[in-house]
Structures are given as structure tokens and as C-alpha cells.
Amino acid sequence: MPRTLVLTKHPRDYETLIEAARLPDLTLVAASEVEDGLARGGSSEVLVGDPGRVTAALPRLPNLRWVQLTWAGVERMLDPALRRDYVLTNIRGVFGPLMSEFVFSYLLAHERKILQRVEAQREGRWDATLPGTLQGKTIGLVGVGSIGAHLAATAKHFGMTVRGYTRASEESSHVDRYFHGAARVEFAAGLDYLVAVLPNTPGTRRIVDDEMLRALPPHAMVVNAGRGDTLDTEALIRALQEKRLAAAVLDVFEEEPLPPAHPLWSTPGAFITSHTAAPSFPADIVGVFVENYRRFARGEPLLYRVDFERGY
Amino acid sequence: MPRTLVLTKHPRDYETLIEAARLPDLTLVAASEVEDGLARGGSSEVLVGDPGRVTAALPRLPNLRWVQLTWAGVERMLDPALRRDYVLTNIRGVFGPLMSEFVFSYLLAHERKILQRVEAQREGRWDATLPGTLQGKTIGLVGVGSIGAHLAATAKHFGMTVRGYTRASEESSHVDRYFHGAARVEFAAGLDYLVAVLPNTPGTRRIVDDEMLRALPPHAMVVNAGRGDTLDTEALIRALQEKRLAAAVLDVFEEEPLPPAHPLWSTPGAFITSHTAAPSFPADIVGVFVENYRRFARGEPLLYRVDFERGY
If pLDDT is split at 50, 70 and 90, which confidence band does B10 have? Predict the structure, then answer.
């Protein structure tokens, strides 16, 4: 009967869902018992939580055997100063559909001129300007993991051509053409949409740089929903200011929250979405936890186990 | 060598595309020759055009054999006062993808709170409010023809449950449950989204009435992209004003353009899209015309032929 502790922002949402799953032998340590320095939670063997709360608790959990992260990002767990004597699993698979809704909400809003039509309505003006369409347009995905593959499938549903820029992998059948390594300008040339969804792996800093941005046509839109340092922010701001780009939807930043004085807030064409692209909804996370708990109880390998050495 | 005449708002776009198709034996009557009362166009056998321009020209085309409409809507062609001694074909098939982009642009903008985040950005405020998701939500389609079937497929791609309200047909496999006839309240109860895309057929007036609107939960959004009289506008305005509905996206109206003094312009939650949901893009229309011209030249049955008696 593994004692299980939930350390998240809204622990009751998780606890209610975990209780509803009626998992065999599970003893849930109530969040309310945890407030006083893990007084009772300290004997837990299983931990469900986000990286910030989990890393803070790690030194005080002598019986810890398994941590189920509520995030995809594992970077903070890889700090060499932290223990690694437990099984770490993260969340994968559930963010593709959410990221698809995020990315395509902005692509479609752009084509359908939603903001322009709201403005016309405020003025009581019948605005019959023709919309654009995603059909026949080309989207370039920087990073084609499970999230990129889902975006590629959605792009195909809307009749788009899909390019992928990856280190080496060519796994999604929805990508029409792959580019690697030095073929960055070739990848970006002529794209209508460039969407960066790089996972949290090393070696991906500023892949979308001034050179890649200059290869895009002036009607292009850039979306960054991976990590903040994928993109050269200064180069992007210059591109928007000089009208070399139509728009940029930015969900992640090198510093979050984005500082109030940051020029991006008022750069024309920039849309700030405040790291809301693919949140961890408790129902999705608990779905992964429940499957993994059943495996854990039977001594089977867990889904989405993180290799501390490889970093993912 | 059938003389072919284009009567549309932007005839040069059509003519350029038709010329590029290099159709055998086709003689295109230049739009510039038509201005003076069809002086030379009057001998045309084939006409490509919208209902308004076509009906005006009908009495002056003695050699007319075939009209390819650039619209889906055929109502104006059915006026009993007009001749019916020619083959009439309309446009079908191309509007499903466009309508899908229209409907889902607003569904996704609603879930992702795009307007709210734009407002927050204007204030320089990091707005990390959680988005909603289409996954697990229920969409109800009033009318499931070729357009409704395409919407159902897109809804399934986004993980939605799909209900269909039709007179009798149950043709789309993407609809989870069909409703007919008197089951109007049952159809509407608990819907997150009600989307009306009824074709231009008789007997569909005010199907979405006060009773159906009252069956929707207060967080629901209504979309009307079929025809203006499908919806009881006064009942809709009351529902929005009394917060019994979250939003309504309206593309079509009983009078178009919507009169400047109409209360819909400023009804809270109403979005006016000024009949732009599924425009006839010349490239799509010419694609249908080219296929039909080849059939016409070979004496084969044409695609999308309209039956004057049935009205579609």
C-alpha cells in the first residue's frame, strides 16, 4: 500500500480524481497533512507533482521510489546536486492535442481576420474583406517529436504542406519534407508559418535566429511554444518592427513572467500568450498516473520514464 | 467551340484561371465585351457566374445550354418566372473545408481566450488564465450535408462528441448521434456549441428558435453560417442579453448587409462576420468548372446538377 503524496498547485483537484480511480492499495496522503514540513507525507513512496515542489521535497522523502511529474519538462530534475535514486516519469502524449488547439487557434484567427472583424463591429461596419485559408499554405515545424507530429496531423487536416526541421529524426508521416543541420535557410524559405515546439533537450538554443527569420517571407507568422531560448528575441523584434514578418505568437520566454518593461509587450504583431499553450490539466495527468500506478503495483516498467543521463 | 461568358464580380480572376487550364475548343468572351448589354456575349452557350448577374442575363442568351454557378445557393435561380431550358450546376464540395476553418477559428478563439489575452497584453499584464479545450466538448450540427460532414470530421480531429439534427439523413460517420423532427430540445440540451449550417432548402425557417436556445447551457456558443432565417434573431438577442448564452457568431442575416442600427452590432457576446464564412475563391470555382467543361465537351453528365423541381 504505497503512500502517495500530491504536491501541485491545486492538490485537491488531483486527489479527487485519484480517489475516483479507486486504485488498489493506494493510500493518499492528504495535502492538508503536508503543510507542516511534510510531517506525515515524509514517509511517502510515491510522489505526484511539479518540478518546483518535487525538487524542494526530495531531500525529505527517505522512502521515495517513484516520482510522477505533472509536466513534460524535466530540466530542473536533472540538477547534478539532486538525488537520482528513484524512478522518474514525466507526462508525454497529452500535450499534442492541446498544443494543436493553441497553434491552430492563432493560425485560424490570423487567416479569418478575427481581430480586424471585431474592430469593424465596434464601428458598426459590415466588413466583407475576404478571409485567407490554410489550404495550400506551408507550415514549418522546428522540432517534430510527439507534439510536432500532432501539429503535422492537424495541418494535414486543414490541407497544408508540412516541413519539419529536426536533428535527425523523420518519424511523422504527416511531414512532407524533412530538413536537418545546415539546411536552416532552405527550411524557412517561403514558409507561411514557422512553429517552434522544441522539447527540453540541450543544443537547441537560438535555432530560430536572425538568419532563419530573414529567410521567411514578410507575410509569415512565427509561433514559439517550445522554450524561450529557442528564439532570438531581439532579432524577432527587429523583424516585426521592420515589417519583415506579419506576426509572432509567443508563449514562452527566457524570463517568465515576461518583465513589464519588456519591448515585446508593445511590439506590433507580437501576441503574448503567457505560457498557457499546453497546461497540465489534472484529468490528463491523473490518466497517465493511474496507468503508471497499475504498472508500478505489478512491478512492470512505467510509461514515460526519464533517463537521467540522456536528459529525457 | 462553346462560347463561354464569365459574369462575376472579378471576372478577370476567373478568366485568367480558365485560360490557364487550356480547355479544348473553349472560346472565352472577354468581360470587357460584355459591358454594352451583352452585345457579343449574347451568343454564348456557357455561362459562369453568380445568381444575381446570371438571372439578369438569362433573357438575353438565346443559345444558352449550361450555367455553372459560382455559389452553392440556387434559390434565386428557382424563381418560376425564369427560364429552365438549360443545365444548371452549382458549387458543392469546396465549402466544407472553408466552413471548417471559419467555425473552428471561432471555437478555438473562444476556448483559448484570444480576445481576453489581447486585452491583457494591451495592459502589459501576464495573463496565465487557463485556456479551455475542445477535447470532450459536444458540438451539435443543425444540418449535416457535405458541409456539416466536414465540420463533424474536424470536430472529431479535436476530440469532440458530435450530434447532428437533420430532417432524416444520417450519412456522416463522424456524427455520434442523430436527432430528427420533434427531438429539438433533446438535441440542444447540454451542447457546448450549436452550429447551424443548413443548406438553401425550404422548410428550415427558424429551426433555431427560443425553445432550442433555452435548452442550451449558459456557457454555450451558437454559430450561424447557413442562412439568416434559420435563427430567431430576437430570441437570440434576448438569450445573450440575459446571459443564457455565452456567445453567438453570426455570418448570415435576414437582411444583408446588416443594417447599421440593428441591435446585434452591440449585443454583448455577438460576433458579426459579415457573410465571409465560405467565400467562392476563383481557384476553387474554376476547378469545378474545368472538370464540368471536360464533361460538357464529351457530352457526359455534369457534376452538381441542380434539379429545378426539388430545388437543390
Answer: confident
* Percent of residues, chain B, with pLDDT higher than 90: 82
pLDDT tens digit sequence for A246-298: 999 999 999 999 999 999 999 999 999 999 999 989 999 999 999 999 999 99
Among A34-43, A54-63, A80-89, the range scoring the smallest mean pLDDT is: A34-43
**Reduced DSSP (H G I as helix, E B as strand, rest coil) percent helix, strand, coil of chain B, to 5:** 35, 15, 50
Please, which residues 130-159 of chain A have a Cβ atom closer than 8 Å to chain B?
130-131, 133-135, 153-154, 157-159
Sign of the alpha-carbon dihedral angle for B82, B84, B89, B92? positive
Per DSSP, B127 falls in state -
CB B179 within 8 A of CB B191: no
pTM, to two decimals: 0.89
3-class secondary-structure state, position A7: strand
**DSSP H/E element including A285:** helix A282-298
Nearest CA in chain A to B277: A131
List Cα–Cα distances, A223 to A22, A116, A160, B92, B183, in angstroms.
Answer: 41, 20, 16, 34, 44
Tell me the C-alpha distance between B274 and A120, whole Å. Answer: 10
Residue A46, φ and ψ in degrees, nearest 5: -120, 135
CATH 3.40.50.720 intervals, chain A: 3-91+280-298, 96-272
Instruction: Identify the sign of the CA torsion A67, A70, A76, A78.
Output: positive
User: What topology does CATH give the domain B96-272?
Assistant: Rossmann fold (3.40.50)
Give Rg (Cα) of chain B.
22
| Strand ranges, E, within B136-273 | 138-142, 161-165, 177-179, 193-196, 221-224, 247-250, 270-272
The beta-strand segments (E) located in chain A are: 3-7, 27-29, 46-49, 66-69, 87-89, 138-142, 161-165, 177-179, 193-196, 221-224, 247-250, 270-272
Residue B56: predicted pLDDT = 92
Taking contacts as CB-CB distances below 8 angstroms, the residues of chain B near A120 are 272, 274
**Homologous superfamily, domain B3-91+280-298:** NAD(P)-binding Rossmann-like Domain (3.40.50.720)
Q: Residue B60 is placed in which grid cell?
A: 438575353
Q: What's the CA gap between B206 and B261, in Å, rounded?
A: 22
| ipTM of the complex model | 0.89
Q: Which chain B positions have a beta carbon within 8 Å of A130's beta carbon?
A: 276, 279, 281
